[in-house]
Write a structure and sequence with these properties.
Elements (H helix, E strand, L loop, with lengths): L2 H18 L1 H9 L4 H24 L9 H24 L5 H12 L13 H22 L3 H5 L4 H5 L9 H29 L3 H12 L13 H15 L2 H11 L17 H29 L1 H23 L6 H16 L14 H13 L12 H19 L8 E2 L2 E2 L2 H26 L5 H12 L11 H5 L3 H16 L1 H17 L3
Antiparallel strand pairs: 1-2
Length: about 525
């Protein structure tokens, strides 16, 4: 194993953590006018910067190709390293070390399991949002670089139908990471503008944009009851549900290349104005044609169709249930609340507008199913991902048909592309292993004295990175756990974020190293 590559990747993660400390320093100086708090965060920034330099220096000499074992070790180690340095502000102010670690891990994995009291300083809630955004930032980097080499079941929708090439070469990985992170930053800015136009101040708009785009959520929601703020949150969470590489393809192809504008030809001075007019007209004509073409591609995407249909049907069901149970009598408000919670839970953000503890069981069960589904492949959401659900449904339909027509030759197609049976097998393996993992950790959590139903809910909430489930397991449930069980929850959260395949590969590596070195 080449440890220098691992040091290099950890050094880049610590560089991102160093940059993340700049925002609370700025807020402490100009928002709080608290120099002591600014110095505290500045010292943490300095420590992270030194560690980032040391790790990068140790990884300066490395191969240009990363192996699977190195990918797995780096992918798991990075979360614990970031959790240690991200938890320091919580430890130095309010929380115990174990609670601070659980808080930080839940933020980095976009679970949003908030352990902070309601009267916590605003800078800690801002740091919460920064950790959520940073965690999804790191996850997207892993998603398009390391994870395809580890799990092998990620690249179906992206590599086959969208021409994306995933490679273990560090240069190609760096190129893919830059592309996807550019889209992530752009969508965060769009979300910030939406919240700003909805009436929030700059800091609340920044915090909500980071929480919604990262699907971190939490219990921080300024402007609750504001019609515009709620719809800005719905729009932002919908963006987070989508395929980020599909976003990049749409945005990258909407602008026509300069070769199609004939601007390289010599310019005739006499017809200069006419040439400029024709060039501008051609540019916008090509952009309009590309926009229509990209819109057709986006709408015809199987995952997008499944997502929108699921949101539409679930919203109608919850709205009807609210009226039927007299839970809310205002039609417009009930539809808005239903749509908000459907989008919030299918994106695994977990933000709530009302107390769902007393909501009808049908609503809570439907929201739980949406959490298990999750968003599109290539998004920052948790859950099984829509593409896997589609494959499982189509596989069940084909096997049913084969019972009637055993000699029929069939194939599973997604977006008119045949899915190899190798990928289908991995999807089935993923579903089975996720179910087994859910059961095992449910049994472990039940040893803390919690009812088995609550243990199952906590395990499911951690594996899907939703954090809390309304009326089943809340933040107070996790707070009451023993310290050892809180660390187990941290472990489940990380497994749910990096997917089960990486964890199993790590166990295989440990067993292999023990066989080679029994002493």
């Amino acid at each position: 194993m080449d440890r220098s590559i691992i040091y290099l990747l950890l050094g880049r993660a610590m560089t991102a953590m160093t940059l993340a400390y700049m925002l609370p320093i700025y807020y402490a100086l100009f928002g709080m006018q608290d120099k002591d708090m600014a110095i505290f965060f500045a010292l943490l920034l300095l420590i992270c910067a030194v560690l980032a330099v040391l790790l990068t220096y140790k990884g300066r000499i490395h191969r240009q190709r990363i192996r699977i074992n190195e990918s797995v070790v780096a992918m798991i180690t990075v979360w614990w390293l970031l959790a240690i340095f991200g938890a320091i502000p919580f430890i130095m102010t309010l929380l115990s070390p174990v609670d601070a670690i659980l808080e930080t891990v839940s933020d980095l994995t976009a679970a949003g399991l908030s352990l902070l009291p309601q009267d916590a300083p605003y800078i800690l809630k801002l740091w919460q949002a920064i950790l959520m955004w940073l965690g999804s930032f790191i996850f997207l980097s892993i998603l398009v670089t390391i994870l395809p080499e580890v799990s092998g079941c990620f690249g179906l929708e992206l590599s086959l139908s969208q021409g994306q090439i995933f490679s273990p070469m560090l240069g190609q990985m760096r190129f893919m990471a830059k592309k996807i992170l550019l889209i992530y930053e752009l969508l965060t800015f769009i979300s910030f503008v939406m919240f700003k136009l909805a009436g929030l101040d700059n800091w609340d708009a920044i915090s909500m944009a980071m929480r919604c785009i990262s699907t971190g959520g939490g219990d921080f929601f300024p402007g609750k009851g504001n019609f515009y703020v709620e719809y800005a949150a719905i729009f932002s969470m919908l963006l987070a549900c989508g395929n980020f590489l599909l976003y990049f393809r749409l945005m990258n192809t909407i602008i026509p290349p300069t070769s199609s504008l004939n601007i390289t030809k010599p310019i005739d001075i006499k017809n200069f104005a006419k040439k400029i007019h024709l060039t501008i007209k051609t540019f916008f004509s090509l952009m309009r044609r590309n926009a229509r073409s990209n819109l057709r591609i986006f709408i015809s995407n199987s995952e997008v169709q499944f997502l929108l249909v699921t949101i539409f049907i679930s919203t109608l069901i919850i709205t009807f249930t609210i009226f039927n149970k007299d839970y809310l009598t205002d039609g417009n408000a009930s539809f808005r609340i239903a749509l908000f919670h459907v989008v919030s839970y299918i994106s695994t953000t977990g933000i709530t507008l009302t107390n769902l503890t007393n909501a009808p069981d049908a609503i809570r069960f439907l929201l739980f199913l949406l959490v298990l589904i999750g968003g599109c492949m290539g998004s920052v959401t948790g859950g099984l991902k829509i593409i896997r659900i589609i494959i499982l449904f189509k596989l069940a339909a084909i096997e049913t048909i084969k019972v009637i027509h055993p000699r029929m030759i069939t194939s599973i197609k997604v977006n008119s592309i045949a899915v190899p049976m190798k990928i289908v097998g991995r999807v089935l393996s993923f579903f089975f292993l996720s179910s087994v993992t859910l059961f095992i950790f449910s049994v472990i959590l039940s040893l803390s004295g919690q009812p088995f139903s609550t243990s199952v809910a906590m395990s499911a909430a951690c594996l899907t990175n939703i954090g809390t489930l309304p009326g089943i397991c809340e933040s107070a449930t996790f707070v009451s756990l023993p310290a050892v069980m809180k660390l187990v929850c941290c472990f489940i959260l990380i497994i749910g974020r990096i997917e089960i395949f990486a964890f199993l590969i790590l166990i295989g590596l440990i067993n292999l190293s023990q066989e080679r070195n029994p002493w």
